[in-house]
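Run: sequence + coenzyme A -> complex structure.
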Amino acid sequence: MRAHTSKVDTGSPSFVANRDAYLQEIATLSERQQWAIDGGHNRERSIERHLARGKHMVRDRIDMVIDADTPFLELSTLSGYGQYDNAAPGAGIVTGVGTVHGVPWMFIANDATVKGGSLLPVSIKKHVRAQEIAEQNGLGVIYLVDSGGAFLPLQDEIFPDKDHFGGSFYRQARLSAQGLPQLSVVLGGCTAGGAYVPALSDEVIMVEGIGRIFLGGPPIVKAALGEIIDADDLGGAVLHTMTSGVSDYIAQTEAEAYGKLRELCESVNQRRISDRQGWLDYVDPEPPAFDPAEIYGIVSADDRIPFDVTEIIARLVDGSKFAEFKPDWGSTIVTGFARMWGHQVGIIANDGVIFAEAALKATHFIELCEQRRIPLVFLQNTSGYMVGSEAEAGGIAKHGAKMVSAVANATVPKYTVLIGGAYGAGNYGMCGRGFNPRFLFAWPNSRIATMSAATAQTVLVDIRLAGLKGDDTTEEEVAAMRAEVAEQYETQSNPYYATSRLWDDGLIDPVHTRDILGLCLSLAARQDEPPVGPPLVYRM
Ligand code: COA
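>> structure
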């Protein structure tokens, strides 16, 4: 495979202007991530109280469990951002992948400094999404429990529906049955439904003095039975480890509990991150020939100006080597083979609006990768499928449907990164959230919506005006309508709006993309080869 020849001039004014603008985006991202760690309404007081009780901060807890000097891939750090009066940094829960004795685990850890670790609607979504990732990637789950349970004022958005609180217990029970270990350390409250997190775990450690499990806390017991009892006597570590059997081990301190947890992790008989099963072709990795930080200068600061996606690919793949498939046909989608951290991948990337040829090329390429058992990496930057009389007469709907169908049914691991616009059905064909990529990350310059704000202000207002036929709407009123629609679309397509609602698994710095995808691929490489998908019916 030959290395890419770059046309990027890193000294050009446009490169420098783009890079400066992107560095600003990165500064904003870091500042907002810091907000998730220790910011938010009334958080200082909560953190002080938490530390005064001798408890550790949630991310420090995870650091105390994972192998020294190994990374932790935190997911959806900015969930909850801008929602709930900005009082729910990280949605009060930290999820992510880290290794213990070389075995990768999914961590689900409550942050008791945010609303007592109680679960808001988006916290439940994050908890359940982490379990879904664990299932798809064959990961055991470590629960670090310190939670007030359901966030009671919003109980109707948390309790009754599929994938609400009950769904998290359903998934936990099924993960355990699949042989994916479920281990809990109880470091705070586990009240009512929350009691089922440890109770459904394969093994449980409780920390004396801080860990408590009960279906009803002392106030409920008093109201229901007239019984007056102290929280520790009702559901503390001594009671549950020595009398009830709800817990299996007791620890005096958090540090002791994490030492014990690491010991439990030695006996789970799970594959290590390095235990490749051989179905996914692998060679020694090599870094890209071009500096990934050059991506900052390649991505246009003005999202209406397109950028060459092959220059992006060259900064993500091993040796910047990319064997392009069908380079002279359907040029608005770029397809080809490359390696990321040694693992072979098939890349599908947008270079503009998707025409029929591009959709067909992508479908052909997905089928190739499916047959050859090569994971797919989608790099999304599209305004969608082509519209207009020529495109319709050429059958763009059926060609787009072929691509959508191929993506939906491919059983090889799929990963998606939103590197620019993710608009319209193009988002679906390029393996958007609805198409179950194993992980979906977004860059902070990305935008996701049915259509761009610029298009929406024309389309929506024209539809409204058509309905007002013959009325005397003034030009000023039309302009105000357009401004209102544009503002709505700009707000809702913003990546922070999206990540807050868990439409992705996190906003990432483009420079980290290669390492993150490399880790995701190594999770798949340690699993058995996925079964080949079913034969498809394509509309010809
Ligand atoms: N729903 C909504 N808010 C909750 C909550 C819940 N289940 N549990 C805690 N909170 C909020 C508190 O209102 C408080 O909010 P504020 O910071 O805006 O004032 C914050 O979380 C911290 O709670 P606080 O009780 O001051 O902290 P604590 O560390 O002393 O105690 C708990 C933490 C979790 C042990 C305690 O709050 C508790 O018992 N909560 C209720 C648990 C429960 O009965 N859950 C039933 C779930 S079905």
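>> summary
Residues 42, 46, 115-116, 118, 148-153, 189, 191-193, 217 surround coenzyme A (CB under 6 Å). The radius of gyration is 25 Å.
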